[in-house]
Amino acid sequence: MEVYTVTVATGTSEYSGTNNYIYLTLVGENGESERTQLDNPGLDFCRGAVDQYKVTSPSPLGSVLLVRLEKQRYWVEDNWFCQYVTVEPPDGGKVLTFPCYRWFVGDVKMEIREGTAKTLTGDSALQLLEHRRTELQERQKTYRWVTWAPGIPRCVDAETEADLPQDVVHTHSMIQHICNKFDFKTTNKLTIWFGKSWDDLEDFKRIFWKLKSPIAEYCMKHWKEDWFFGYQCLNGSNPRMIQRCKKLPENLPVTADMVQRSMAGRTNLNKELKAGNIYLLDYAIMDGIPSNTIKGHPQYIAAPICLLYQHPDEGLIPIAIQLEQTPGRDTPIFLPSDPPLAWLLAKMWVRHSEFQVFQILSHLLRTHLVVEVFCVATLRQLPAVHPIYKLLAPHLRYTLEINCRGRTQLISANGIFKRVVSTGGDGLLILAQREYKVLTYRSIQPLYDFCDRGVSQLPNYFYKDHSLMLWEAIHSFVSSMVNLYYQSDHDVQEDLELQAWIRDITEEGFTELPNFGLPSKLSSREELCTLLAVAIFTSTAQHAATNNGQFDWCAWVPNTPCTMRQPPPTDKDAVTMDMIMATLPDVSQSCVQMAITWHLGRAQPDAIPLGRYTEDHFTEAKALEVIDRFRMELKEIEKHILTENEGLELQYLFLLPSRIENSITI
């Protein structure tokens, strides 16, 4: 008899253990071992346990190709999460690791492969080729494409998170906790304050006594200042909106005389345009978006154009604001020289548009929904042994669940956005559809994005600087990993699974996008590396840049209001404090805005930071060396950012690698 030593590791999260029967069979190139019930004295398969067993075979198995695990019910159904299995052959040779990282739900049988990453051409054994084919067939039945709404990326076919397999669901979902709290606390306790305006701006401090952050408090003190408005255009929650203005838009009739008082000495608007110091925020995408009606009360939307100037002494400052796209008598151009309340209200309207754009477009569409396309295609087209699956899996963790919950509980017809946000309801979908029509593959690559917007020379653009450092680190990481498994461009072209993956992305995920710019075939290692870098950068750094600071910038409600209850002003001289208070979110809406941005933007208690891999999908030494180099590079970036921020009163730390999650989980 041949005796193999087998080690089985149970997951460490809650509910990972089981008291059900577990059976194991080793499948080798020369036959199978005995089907063995894994049962030691005492309790087996407890949470975090690493249990060892002996498995016998009547004859040598040769190379062990697969481990077959079976779970059978004992008294009550009890799911089990298996991390990995190791197998030591009878001759004491090399111990083989079989990564699993799967849930066993019900009476189920599962076969897992040894951990060496292999493309389709790297497998020759018919049994392993059949295993790849069967795995993908099962996955394609489980993970199906569906159109949740026309005109946006397609997503996984699951009406709610309950329809998802346990493998992609977190045992404790933060967003469920949020929505449960809102169902009771917000609905029941805040309804009495609906429609009740605050008395004055200082009154907003009444909800600012417990939930705080250093930036939120700084914001409360400086939000009226023009330089701070400009700073947020660079380093706030929507730092990819600003663009260089080479020529004034035809629908913004600003003259040099209008803004001369904002210029530095011995210069004027025309000179600064030529010098590249004039920038633009244009919210044309908001024009004509239907606004929400909350409890019978209409909310209001504007489509501002804001002109900014990179002042040599004051930094980036706004110098002119028009609140609608069509100029006219009722669409004045607001200036810093106008009555202070009029200028303040104009900036509030820009920041209100900023809330809509960053939440729905920069955050939801350009990170969550874009990454979901990669999630579904990866699960459908790449088996677990494929190196690209192993590379992407940690960066796609739990994204399907959070997106399902978002669709059902945040942006649905009766979700939180419908209750408090001015674009809630039909507006947010129309807004997303408009952005999706113009979405390009080029625009989600940071090098091109900064270049195309003409912002490469802007000083104190920390988001840009840190993004580029992270992009280079991620691109270098994926390039090293790709080069381990693809020796040439021909290898990429001949990988049928990889080519099916890119077709799923372009033809099933990003549908109705003829100008997206991503081909349906991968022709080179360089193309593959760029695409993988885009997927990982978007699911980590880009998501962190838009998500993690939302409480900091939105907690002080007047700085970034979620809705406006009165239409934009048409007369500068008619703006009063009463008008401002009647326009800003009411007490109820303010409380919800503060609470939801705190819950969604705060550091999650079980967050896994960028570069930390809690599941060891790769087992080869060379691949592990690549991961170690990536971690070291991230540590150097961390040191650089911390050093750069030393002594700064207003620090930009959202892209610290230690504060970036490894995947989109919230």
Automatic annotation (TrEMBL):
<keyword id="KW-0479">Metal-binding</keyword>
<keyword id="KW-0223">Dioxygenase</keyword>
<dbReference type="GO" id="GO:0005506">
    <property type="term" value="F:iron ion binding"/>
</dbReference>
<feature type="domain" description="PLAT">
    <location>
        <begin position="2"/>
        <end position="118"/>
    </location>
</feature>
<keyword id="KW-0560">Oxidoreductase</keyword>
<feature type="site" description="Essential for stabilizing binding to COTL1">
    <location>
        <position position="103"/>
    </location>
</feature>
<feature type="binding site">
    <location>
        <position position="78"/>
    </location>
    <ligand>
        <name>Ca(2+) 1</name>
    </ligand>
</feature>
<feature type="binding site">
    <location>
        <position position="666"/>
    </location>
    <ligand>
        <name>Fe cation</name>
    </ligand>
</feature>
<feature type="domain" description="Lipoxygenase">
    <location>
        <begin position="118"/>
        <end position="666"/>
    </location>
</feature>
<dbReference type="InterPro" id="IPR036226">
    <property type="entry name" value="LipOase_C_sf"/>
</dbReference>
<dbReference type="InterPro" id="IPR001885">
    <property type="entry name" value="LipOase_mml"/>
</dbReference>
<dbReference type="InterPro" id="IPR042062">
    <property type="entry name" value="PLAT_LOX_verte"/>
</dbReference>
<comment type="pathway">
    <text>Lipid metabolism.</text>
</comment>
<feature type="binding site">
    <location>
        <position position="363"/>
    </location>
    <ligand>
        <name>Fe cation</name>
    </ligand>
</feature>
<feature type="binding site">
    <location>
        <position position="368"/>
    </location>
    <ligand>
        <name>Fe cation</name>
    </ligand>
</feature>
<dbReference type="InterPro" id="IPR020834">
    <property type="entry name" value="LipOase_CS"/>
</dbReference>
<feature type="binding site">
    <location>
        <position position="40"/>
    </location>
    <ligand>
        <name>Ca(2+) 2</name>
    </ligand>
</feature>
<keyword id="KW-0443">Lipid metabolism</keyword>
<keyword id="KW-0963">Cytoplasm</keyword>
<feature type="binding site">
    <location>
        <position position="543"/>
    </location>
    <ligand>
        <name>Fe cation</name>
    </ligand>
</feature>
<dbReference type="InterPro" id="IPR013819">
    <property type="entry name" value="LipOase_C"/>
</dbReference>
<dbReference type="GO" id="GO:0005737">
    <property type="term" value="C:cytoplasm"/>
</dbReference>
<feature type="binding site">
    <location>
        <position position="39"/>
    </location>
    <ligand>
        <name>Ca(2+) 2</name>
    </ligand>
</feature>
<dbReference type="GO" id="GO:0034440">
    <property type="term" value="P:lipid oxidation"/>
</dbReference>
<dbReference type="Pfam" id="PF01477">
    <property type="entry name" value="PLAT"/>
</dbReference>
<protein>
    <submittedName>
        <fullName>Arachidonate 12-lipoxygenase</fullName>
    </submittedName>
</protein>
<dbReference type="InterPro" id="IPR036392">
    <property type="entry name" value="PLAT/LH2_dom_sf"/>
</dbReference>
<comment type="similarity">
    <text>Belongs to the lipoxygenase family.</text>
</comment>
<keyword id="KW-0408">Iron</keyword>
<dbReference type="InterPro" id="IPR001024">
    <property type="entry name" value="PLAT/LH2_dom"/>
</dbReference>
<dbReference type="InterPro" id="IPR000907">
    <property type="entry name" value="LipOase"/>
</dbReference>
<dbReference type="Pfam" id="PF00305">
    <property type="entry name" value="Lipoxygenase"/>
</dbReference>
<keyword id="KW-0106">Calcium</keyword>
<feature type="binding site">
    <location>
        <position position="17"/>
    </location>
    <ligand>
        <name>Ca(2+) 1</name>
    </ligand>
</feature>
<dbReference type="GO" id="GO:0016702">
    <property type="term" value="F:oxidoreductase activity, acting on single donors with incorporation of molecular oxygen, incorporation of two atoms of oxygen"/>
</dbReference>
